[in-house]
Amino acid sequence: MKRILLLLLLTSLAWARPVRDGHVEVELVAQPGTPVAGQTLELGIHFKMDEHWHVYYKNPGATGYKPKFTWHLPPGWKAGEVAWPVPQRLVIADLQQFVYEKEVLLATKVTVPSDFKGGPVKLSADVEWLACSESCIPGQAKVELQLPEEVVPTALFQQATEELPQSTGNITLRAWRLEPKKAFLEYPGDTGDRADFFADSAEANFDSAPVWQPGKGLEIPVQEKEGKLQGVLAIEQAGKRKGLLVDIPIEAKAPARPLSNPVPSVPTAGGNAGVGFWSALFGAFLAGMILNLMPCVFPVLSLKALSLVRHNQDGPKAHWTQGWVYTAGVLVSIWVIAAPLLLVTGTRSLGWGYQMQSPVFVTLLAGLFLGIALNLFGLFEVGEGLTRLASVAEGRKGYSESFWSGIVATVSATPCTGPFMGAALGYAVTQSPLVAFLVFTSLGLGIAFPYLILCGVPAARGWLPRPGAWMESFKVGMGFPMLAAMVWFVYILANLLSAEGLGLVMGGLVTISLGAWVFGRWGYSTESSTRFKGKSLAALLMLLGLGGAAGVAYSEKYGHNRHVQVAHTEGGLTWEPFTPEKLDELRKQGKPVFIDFTAAWCINCKVNEKLTLAEASVIQAFLQKQVVLLKADWTQRDETIGKFLASFGRTGVPFYVYYPPNGEPRPLPEAISPGIVKSALEP
Question: Which one is the CATH code of 174-251: 3.30.420, 2.60.40, 1.10.3470, 1.10.3210?
Fold first, then answer.
């Protein structure tokens, strides 16, 4: 009778008893079989969650914490690492979380000591977890198990094994960095939106979920300091989900990916693929020289021409000095503008010309060019003291003018990109700070080079006319290009501010004009008291006008007054607003897509739109091939557009890309012609 009771007691102890705490039930289970000395035994904590509740993966993501286990095993028994099945991604309020829902078995292998003699063994573990749904509730339980007996169906461990991530085997994975906080994971085969990645590190970047980029791979958010990609690549195929263990270095640059049918003279999809250090330096220098001929810089050319005429009778040394001071102004301003692109985290999405997305900056430019125009009209003259304020050569009149002319030329030029500029800048922002600094410096030297040659080469100066009475008329006439530039900046503001805000800024510009008139009328009086009052009132009016206009622009930041893009028709063509989702939808439908990345402040964009995209043969080609046209307006700051440009190695607009049906994207150069566009549309 005693033996029967003992057998019944052992049998009852052999079955683990599930323990419930809140919305989670946990149970300690063991793989069927008898423990053998010197071998391993598989144990597991089996979680069952109520509907809509979940527990967390070993890397919980942005919130939560993983289940914790404290094992209580007989002497000599050792528990190994927990095997974590592939989790699911759950996003709540933009927080990325990695979880298990319904049920999960977290298994571990326990080593049985070599001196184990057999017989009943009691195992237990203290378990802690966090269960969440609309609220989060910590849970804990002590689970126990008596061996040996068959305590759980074999299928439970088989299913858990199938859910574990596997080695990549003969599958080759490759990771490369797109920008400081973005990396691509290349995986052979087309997994589309069915791919996901779960990092091992709890300090990973959880800003967003990975996004599949056709032809590139899985775009994964990473920390800037990460040199390796470690985690699990989850892939859903044929209705089944499998995981691959990932532990590979993140390479610095993307490989060149030639198009299946590239267009002649058109860069590859990589944007800056194939651009080397020396070609980037030369391209940046050549792009800088070409910028002098762009409409963006035309108003400043009049100032430079006037300055050259004024100093044509000076000696050779003075000419060279003027040229180098002007070059210094160009370089200083180019470094200041480029600094955020190189130093601020994640600035690949800022892009070249980013300063023109600031209504405050554009307002200050409008005030500057208005002041230059009024000065050229003779409404007031800047005194010698102000002229010397920024002089780089003490006591030498005119050097500060050259320095500030260089700054104005650069500020006017940078909103535009020209031929060779996109590839060079795209290369620069992917390199080390030193290399990027050299590329931007080469761009600045290119901008200054034509003026430097005119200053230093006597034969070039021989082409210039001699000073004379005509210069006063020429000076006044050159004020009108300054006014035209001011009008252009006001047009840009019309795309950044509300109607009321634009009206107030215009009022500020009128106040500046009034201050300039007061300065010219009474600021040069022979009576000291009148001169003091005139200058004081003029300064007050100018400060009120410029400060008030800038204040209005600041209060109406582009983030608070974003105009909604809508579909519109131009020349018989319908342009729809660009979004990545819209592009993906059209690509899945197999439709050809042409995207125009533009901005109201980009004169080159407007020239291309009027002379090329509105040309009759181009319109006919778009209509015949039934190309869907998308317009990405970057007038206001848009992270989505900035990141999309960065994926092609570009930092500014204009930019054009054509997606043929079921084919690789075909980027076009910044300066397009009807022939280039129509060639890109060919099969």
Answer: 2.60.40
DSSP one-letter code for 200: S
Tell me, letter by letter, the H, E, C secondary structure of 299-310.
HHHHHHHHHHHH
* Cα–Cα distance, 496 to 360 (Å, whole number): 10
pLDDT band per the 50, 70, 90 thresholds, residue 544: confident
CB 595 within 8 A of CB 630: yes
**Rounded mean pLDDT of 515-544?**
81
Class of domain 2-153: mainly beta
Concatenated DSSP letters for 19-43? EEETTEEEEEEE-SS---TTSEEEE
- pLDDT tens digits, one per residue of 101-147: 999 999 999 988 888 887 788 889 999 998 888 777 888 999 988 88
Q: Which CATH class is domain 568-680?
A: alpha beta
What's the DSSP call for residue 261?
S
SS3 230: strand
3-state secondary structure 596-645: EEECCCCHHHHHHHHHHHCCHHHHHHHHHCCCEEEEEECCCCCHHHHHHH
Which 8-state DSSP code applies to residue 114?
T
Show the beta-strand stretches assigned E in 67-190: 68-72, 78-83, 88-92, 95-101, 103-111, 121-132, 136-147, 174-179, 182-186
pLDDT at 605: 80
pLDDT digits (tens, 9 = 90+) for 546-566: 777 777 666 655 444 444 455
- The CB-side HSE value for 546 (13 A sphere, CA atoms) comes to 19
